Amino acid sequence: MKIQNQLILATVILVAGTGILWKVWPQAADRFIKTEVPAEESTVEEFETAEVLLSSEKMKAIHLTVSPVKRQKLNQTRVVLGRLQYDDRKHVAVKAPTEGILVEVRVKPGDIVQAGQVLAVLNSREIGTARADLLQRIADYQLVRKQYDWKSAIQNNVQKLVDALLSHQAMDAVETQFTDTKLGSYRSQLLPAYTRYLLAETINKKTAPLAKSGAISQQTIQMREADVQETRAALKALCEQSIYDVKLERDQALADLNDADNRMTISRQHLESLVGCAVDINSAELKAAEKLSRLEIIAPFTGTIEERTFSQSERVNRADSLFTLAQTDTLWVAADIRESDWNSIELNTGQNLTVTVNAVPGRTFNARLHYLGRQVSASTNSVPLIAELKNPDGILRPGMYAQVRIPGKQQADVIAVPARSVLDDAAQEFVFVKESERSFRRIDIQSGLKTEDWVEVQKGLKGGEQVVEDGAFTLKSELLLEREE
Fold first, then answer.
1. How far is C-alpha 168 from the chain's CA centre?
2. Cα 436 to Cα 282: distance, rounded to the nearest angstrom
3. Structural contact between residues 406 and 80, judged by C-beta atoms closer than 8 angstroms
4. What is the DSSP secondary structure assignment for residue 89, as one 8-state letter?
5. What are residue 95's DSSP bridge partners?
C-alpha cells in the first residue's frame, strides 16, 4: 500500500512538471534563437537608423565638409605593377667589332660622353688587314681610273680624226690639227692609210691629161682609178673598225673601273663595319702606317657610361661588350595587362597614362603609351605594355618599381559620391548624410563601380543629398562611442 501511494505521488509530480515546462519552453526557445543572431546583423540594424548629433563645441573642433550627391560619368581605373627600364632607342652596348687588345680605356662608369668621343683604343690585326686591303683597292681603282680616262680621250680624238679624214682635208692640215692629240696606236693606222688614199688620188688626177693624148694606155688609166677606189675603201673600212675598236676598249675600261670601284666600296664598307663609323679614303690617317691596326671605339650618341666591362691591356673577343651607353632623360615603364582586364580597359597608341613610383612617394609622373602587345603570353596570360616616361631631372632610375594607372572604358551616368565619404562596418558600406547643422544620419549603400576618387552608389541614395566627405571617419567614431555607452 505504501509503494502504491508513492507511485501515485510521482505521477502527479511528473504531470505538473510537464505543464510548467510546456508554458516556459516557447520563451526559452525564443531566447535561444535570439542569442544565435550574428553580432554584425544586430549592429547593422542598429546603424541603419543611427544618427549622430554633435555639440557646438565638437562642430567647431571637427572640420567637416559635405558634397552633393550627383550623377556623373565614371571611368574605372586599373592599376598594374610595372618596372622602369632603359629606353631601347637610347640604350646600347658598345661591343668590340673584332678581337684585339685594349691599349687605352679613356672613360669610366658615370662619365657623360659626347657623340663621336673616343671611349677606348683597340689594337687589332683584323683592322690592320682591312685597312691594308682598302688601301690596295684604292690604288687599283686609281690605276683603272687612269686607264679609263686614257681610253675615253682616245675614243673622242679618234672620232674627230675620222671625221677630218672622211671630210677630205689636206694632209698638212690634218697633221697640224692632230700633232699633239692623243691617238694611241690609231695614229699609225689611220694616217698612213689616208696618205695612200691621197697619193692614189693625186696620181690618178695627173694621168687624166695623158690619157687624152694617148700617152698611156686605157688599161693603165683603169688601174689608177682602181687604186683610188681601193685605197678609199680601205680607209673607210679602217675608220669604221677603228671607231668600233676604240669604243670597245673604252667600254672594257669602264667595266674594269666599275669593278674596281665595287671592290673598293666592299673593302671600305667592311672596314666601316669594323670601326663603326664612316671612313674617309682620302684622309692621311688612313694611310698612316703606324695607325693601320689601331681602332678607336667611339660613342654613337651623347649619353652616360652605365657600365665598363674591360680594363686597359685586356684582350677582348669579337662581340664582347666593352661599355653600356645610355640616355636616361626618357625611360620606359614596362607592365603586363592581364587577359581578364582586357575588356574593361581602353588603350590607344600615344595615350597618356599616370605612373607612380615607389621610390619617389608623393609624386605622379605622366607617361605616353609607346607599345601595346598583341599576343597573350602563355606563361602569364597577359600582354606587354610599354610607356615612355620623361625623366629630365634624372630622379628616376631603371629597375625601380612603379604602378601604372590604366583608364577603363567610359561608363554611363551614375550616382556617385566621393571615395572618402564611403565607410564600412562589418562588410556593410555606408555614408553620413547631413540632416541639419549638427545632425548627421548614417545611410547604408550598395556600391558599384569604383575609381580612385569616386564610388558609384547603386542603392541607398537618390541624388541631391549632402554627404560628409572630410570628417566622415570622425562621425563613425562618435557613433561607435554612443553605441558603447
1. 73
2. 92
3. yes
4. G
5. 321
8 A C-beta contact, residue 68 and residue 474: no
CA 449, CA 471: separation in Å to the nearest integer?
A: 23
Whether the Cβ atoms of residue 165 and residue 239 lie closer than 8 Å to each other: yes
**Largest distance between two CA atoms of the chain:** 210
Angle at 195 between CA 189 and CA 198, to 5 degrees: 140
Instruction: Give the pLDDT confidence of 400-420 residue by residue, as tens digits.
Output: 999 998 887 766 688 899 988
Instruction: Report how far residue 135's alpha carbon sits from residue 132's, in angstroms, rounded to the nearest whole number.
Output: 5
With 70 as the cut, is the pLDDT of residue 28 above it? no
Q: Where are the beta strands (DSSP E) in 242-338?
A: 294-298, 303-308, 315-316, 321-326, 330-338
CA torsion, points 299, 300, 303, 305, in degrees to nearest 10? -40
DSSP-assigned letters across all residues of 21-86: HHHHHHHHHHHHHHHTS-HHHHHHHHHHT-EEE--HHHHHHS---EEE-EEEEEEEEEEEEEEEEE
C-alpha Rg value of the chain to the nearest Å: 52
Q: Please give the single-letter amino acid code of residue 259.
A: D
- Across-strand partners of 325? 92, 305
Q: Please say if the pLDDT value at position 145 is more than 80.
A: yes
Q: Is the Cα dihedral 400, 79, 69, 59 positive or negative? A: negative
Instruction: Dump pLDDT digits (tens) for 229-240.
Output: 999 999 999 999
pTM to 2 decimals?
0.54
Distance from CA of residue 94 to its chain's centroid?
A: 18
Confidence of residue 329 (pLDDT cuts 50, 70, 90): very high
Tens digit of each residue's pLDDT (9 = 90 or more) over 189-224: 999 999 999 898 888 888 777 766 667 777 787 888
